[in-house]
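Hi R.,

As promised on Friday, here is the backbone we talked about, encoded as structure tokens. Could you run it through your design pipeline when you get a chance and send me back a sequence?
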């Protein structure tokens, strides 16, 4: 996909801190200029007879090719957005930290796919490379995952009114289990809680199942297509052979042409822009809200080819609310007060997304 960075006319929308999207006021962009040249000045206020001054265009970030993938130099990414870039060595790891004017940070480590955005964990499709003294980020990871968090003007404005909620598993498909506790039942309970909060906040909600009913993945996707929602949410519980595993995590679909999380297989299908970018921002809001509300371990944002988040007609996300296989976390997940925290956090993530991408009010009379 050809992505035109020169089209960005405003400074990035700042990250979420303390649960609120902080949008920086558009400022004139500073270009690289000869030492004796004057700095770019803020445009003067226009009079009725004048046309508003246009913001200077930014040069595109140069691309470098390694293997069959294109990469961006993270130092130049920082310069492009007006960030500070600091490098250090932690043990055997090379680390680069990009810092915004507000003090929020994005931290990358060479040879790793895990990075953090304002403290929230996320996974890249490709590890960060170290080539010829450069920190390199794969282009699709930037354009389809990171950049929508930096510049929300890239995401089409739309009203969020209708939501499809999918309670994972059901009927003969019980999902994970521990003793008499079946994931399918917990998923349905949490789906009902989330639906109740959303309805109370004015959203229209439809559920793929409202009872213990066997529902195929295709039936869930067909249901979503029929309802034509603004968002699709699938709710699950987690499990692992290692009983110490615990944490909350969220999944969004990977774009076509990049590996699904945990594999090296290139996906032929995936979420297309603009769904992918909207889903990325939604996942960021949701994971931050879940970790903040529950104090659970942050297992991060991942991208994977789950059918219920690829074959749906809207931005989609799958949430894993905790590990049934972990004694302590399972006990918490069975408490109504903890369930309320989870449900409200999910709804808060939707509210934050809706506020960020709501259509601008018309000034015409």
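Update: got your reply. Pasting your designed sequence below so it's all in one thread:
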């Amino acid at each position: 996909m050809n992505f035109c960075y020169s089209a960005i006319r405003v400074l990035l929308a700042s990250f979420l801190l303390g649960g609120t999207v902080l949008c920086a006021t558009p400022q004139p962009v500073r270009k690289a200029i000869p030492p004796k040249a004057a700095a770019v000045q803020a445009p003067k206020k226009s009079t009725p007879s004048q046309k508003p001054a246009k913001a200077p265009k930014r040069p595109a970030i140069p691309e470098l090719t390694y293997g069959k993938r294109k990469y961006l130099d993270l130092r130049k990414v920082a310069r492009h957005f007006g960030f500070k870039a600091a490098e250090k060595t932690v043990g055997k790891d090379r680390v680069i930290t990009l810092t915004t004017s507000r003090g929020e940070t994005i931290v990358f480590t060479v040879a790793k796919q895990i990075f953090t955005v304002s403290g929230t964990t996320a996974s890249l499709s490709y590890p960060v490379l170290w080539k010829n003294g450069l920190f390199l980020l794969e282009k699709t990871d930037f354009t389809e995952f990171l950049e929508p968090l930096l510049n929300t003007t890239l995401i089409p404005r739309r009203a969020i009114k209708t939501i499809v909620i999918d309670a994972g598993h059901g009927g003969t498909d019980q999902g994970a289990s521990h003793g008499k506790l079946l994931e399918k039942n917990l998923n349905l309970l949490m789906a009902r809680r989330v639906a109740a909060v959303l309805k109370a906040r004015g959203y229209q909600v439809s559920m793929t199942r409202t009872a213990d009913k066997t529902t195929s993945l295709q039936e869930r996707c067909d249901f979503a297509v029929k309802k034509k929602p603004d968002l699709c949410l699938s709710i699950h519980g987690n499990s692992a052979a290692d009983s110490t595993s615990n944490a909350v995590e969220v999944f969004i679909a990977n774009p076509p042409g990049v590996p699904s999380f945990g594999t090296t297989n290139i996906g032929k299908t995936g979420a297309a822009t603009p769904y992918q970018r909207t889903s990325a921002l939604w996942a960021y809001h949701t994971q931050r809200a879940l970790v903040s509300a529950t104090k659970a371990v942050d297992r991060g944002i991942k991208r994977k080819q789950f059918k219920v988040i690829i074959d749906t007609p809207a931005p989609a996300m799958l949430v894993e609310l905790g590990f049934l296989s972990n004694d302590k976390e399972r006990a918490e997940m069975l408490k109504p007060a903890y369930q309320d925290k989870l449900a409200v956090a999910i709804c808060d993530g939707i509210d934050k997304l809706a506020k960020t991408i709501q259509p601008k009010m018309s000034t015409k009379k």
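One thing I noticed while checking it: The radius of gyration is 22 Å.

Thanks again,
M.
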